[in-house]
Amino acid sequence: MASAIEALEARHHVESDQLGIVGGVPQIVLRFLVEARDYQGENSEARLSAEMMRDAVERVALTGSLSVLRRSRGKWMPV
């Protein structure tokens, strides 16, 4: 978890973090802010930052699928 937070904090403000176990598998959930600009640019930056975070976590643990979601009108949608 520390590796994930540290990687994201290098580029963004991390609002919250959660480590849970889903079906016996650890799951990291991080919510972070991306600087405002054009919609696609924000999405691209969020994906890139998430991939960098995943790379950092892979140095210390095995990882599974990566999901990047964006909140829009109260709903979380895939980026």
Total domains, how many?
1
Low-confidence stretches: none
How many DSSP-defined strands? 4
What is the average per-residue confidence, as pLDDT, rounded to a whole number?
95
State the end-to-end CA separation: 22 Å
**Number of DSSP helices?**
2
User: Which structural class do you get from the secondary structure elements?
Assistant: alpha+beta
Indicate the radius of gyration in whole angstroms. 13 Å
- Residues in helix, %: 25-40%
Helix-strand sequence = HEEHEE
**Cα shape:** globular
Major sheet details: 2 strands, antiparallel
Strand arrangement within the widest β-sheet reads 1-2
Beta fraction = 25-35%
Outline the structure in words:
The chain is an alpha+beta fold and 79 residues long. It has one domain. It is 35% helix and 34% strand. It contains two helices and four strands, in the order H-E-E-H-E-E. The chain is globular and about 35 Å long.
Notable characteristics:
79 residues, alpha+beta, two-stranded antiparallel ribbon, 2 helices, 35% helix
